[in-house]
Amino acid sequence: MKKKLFFAGMLLLGLSVNALTVNPIVVNVGDVATIGAPSTFAYASIKFPKSNFIIKRGGIVNYSNLSGVRVEVVSIENINGTRIVVIKRADGRKFFNVLPTAKVELEASVYKKELVLN
Length: 118
Fold this sequence. Notes:
- This protein has 3 helices and 6 strands.
- It is α+β, with helices and mostly antiparallel strands.
């Protein structure tokens, strides 16, 4: 009887662990996404340089203008188990008038809804 209960418990444990697996986010080069609203004042998972570097290069730092901008995936990298996606604007303009591309931590940005995949 103890063996049957042990086996049933292990079976339930195995099924519950299997239910906790998360489906990976599928992104390919050339996919189009939309930038959402920042989770804080600035974007946490979209890696832009500090404001003073953008201003020194002649750019205008305004994070609210980025909300709703369509972007295209240029490349995908895997660094220390974290997928880093390089994006550029789909309309051909630059971010803040100075940055042609930006790096994004894919899973964190989708979870925080900073990057919405279409």
